[in-house]
Amino acid sequence: MKLRQRFLSAWILAACFAWILAGCSGSAGQEAPAPFSALTWEASYEDLTRLEGEPLTTYDSVYGGTACTYAKEYKGQKGTLKYMFDDNNQLMCIAWAYETADPSQLDSVYTALHEEVVERYGESGYNPDNPTSYGDVWYLDSGHIILSAITTGNQCALQYAYLNPLASDPE
User: Fold this and answer.
1) Dihedral (CA of 51, 55, 58, 61) sign
2) Is the backbone of residue 92 left (phi > 0), alpha (psi -120 to 50) or beta?
3) pTM of the model
4) Rounded to the nearest 5 degrees, what angle is found at the Cα of 118, between the Cα atoms of 162 and 71?
5) Quick one: which of 137, 132, 141 has its CA closest to 107?
6) What's the start-to-end Cα distance of the chain, in Å?
7) Summary mean pLDDT of the chain
């Protein structure tokens, strides 16, 4: 009987400890904003490296902190996942970037992603009206979503970014 009580007590203690750790990471009960990452806006750099491992590259973020990149396949396409932190270690942007030399392939990937976001959030209403650069912005209280594509001579690129509400300017 004592062995069973000790085992039960140890199990409860371990479960409580795991719950506390999950709460400290800021991700408990929160939904990840970007469909290509499991991190929430409350995640720290340490949470990122626990999830994704060591980054391929790091550089200064436009938000004053660190930016990290990882190779990441999304929707069957190889791309680059970027995380950008501010100078207070606050996650400000999660973005997936894709490059190709084929404009029709870029358009195909863009169209599939665009349809996915429109299905979830509706039309954005944004139109840059430029044949070599196109995209949409969804101005949401939960943080803006920016889907953009650009074609140049022999290179085509797409970025699908989710911004922290703190980094999202009003419309």
Assistant:
1) negative
2) alpha
3) 0.79
4) 40
5) 132
6) 64
7) 83
